[in-house]
Write a structure and sequence with these properties.
By secondary structure, this protein is of the alpha+beta class. The protein has two domains: 1-147, Arc Repressor Mutant, subunit A (Orthogonal Bundle); 151-224, Roll (SH3 type barrels). Helix content is 41%, strand content 17%. A hairpin with a 2-residue loop joins strand 6 (201-205) and strand 7 (208-212). Helix 1 crosses helix 2 (33-40) and helix 1 crosses helix 4. The radius of gyration is 19 Å and the shape is globular. The protein starts with 11 loop residues before the first helix and ends with a strand.
Amino acid sequence: MTSIRALPTLTAPVEDYLKVIFELEAGDGVAGTNEIAAELGVAPASVSGMVRRLAEHGLITHERYRGVHLTKAGRRAALRTIRRHRVIEAYLTRALGYPWDLVHDEAERLEHAASDELIDRMAAAIGEPTTDPHGAPIPTREGTLDEPELLPLAAVEVGVRVRVQRVGDRDAEQLRYLAELGITPGRQIEVLSRAPFEGPISLRIGRVTKTIGPGLAKQILVAVR
């Protein structure tokens, strides 16, 4: 399989678009113009222009009312950017001691400037990590991504013990709060109770009991043991 390092150089805006489209497709199965605009903080008209250019370069397909989809080439380019981002996050935490709530924004700034050679050296220096600090899988040099099936904590039945695998990484304040609660990748949690009508969820974390809201519970992805 050809390494993603062999892909042509793309501009930072193109890489941002491809990464967002990848994430939207992974979440909802489709990336619409309005959703892309919201994620990038740009006007829908700007998205329409970029979508046309990406389609002309064979990186996406676009059908009216059916949204945007990455082509094989677009997906591999997106995975290259995602690999850079997640390796940088892992390196910052493991090698430089950055807290996990600060690495996302740093990686956003560095992912476009770092060469693939540098990213590979970073990964080697910290033992070839398979996940970033928030539990997200890191694509390989060949552009493969192992994404296990995970369940939002909000959907776990009462009385079930689970292991935290991944948490949302964009909200620094939320990450600090999760760390205070002890909800980090690898931690075992038991769902003790759930109030009706989107009420609070009671959890056993280690030897303590904590309560979180359903909105936060949706940001915590778990593997049921």
